[in-house]
């Protein structure tokens, strides 16, 4: 079996990071557990040190893309498993996400989570990501924004730099498909914090929509530039 490095980007996850890491340690085997503390102010990094093999504390909040980039570049495993810090006990379900990559059924497995208990927003960000990925690659995705992914390290080495911020998942999917790698979506019973219908939730979804729009525009431009020069 390929060696596995789990990489968890975390920003102010003090209420959930302990349960998430404990579930990984006690119920799911990995060779290396890395937490990237993205400038947290609530002691997330200190709490993570109890469970993680390596805690990387960034000097400020640089965004999810930068945290993931930092984490996978430190990973020693042949497979990198990206998980969010708020999965709590459901993080143990990661074995189902890892299996297709270990069995060489795909190069990147993306988790499809159960439907949210409470519908948040109008689905604009997810719809934009879905249609953008289909337009750029032809791939019909059910979970374009899922951050729970198992990826062969070779894929990340080949692609190089991940996109920034909330556009990182969309960018990774587009880049992997364009490079000819096999992407599979896998139903996994993860559960995490849901974005509410309050002002904070709307602001979060607005920032996400803008970031996804920028990423898709950049991927469109990169594709046309490659076509002109290729």
Provide the residue-averaged pLDDT. Answer: 91
* CATH level 1 name: Alpha Beta
Q: Please identify which CATH superfamily we are dealing with.
A: Spore Coat Polysaccharide Biosynthesis Protein SpsA, Chain A
In CATH, the topology is named Spore Coat Polysaccharide Biosynthesis Protein SpsA, Chain A
So how many helices? 8
Order of helix and strand elements from N to C terminus? EHEHEHEHEHEHHEH
First-residue to last-residue Cα separation: 38 Å
Query: Architecture, CATH level 2?
Result: Alpha-Beta Complex
Shape assignment: globular
Beta-strand content estimate: 15-25%
Largest sheet: 7 strands, mixed
Radius of gyration computed on alpha carbons: 17 Å
Give the low-pLDDT segments.
none
Which percent bin holds the helix content? 40-55%
- Could you say how many structural domains there are in total? 1
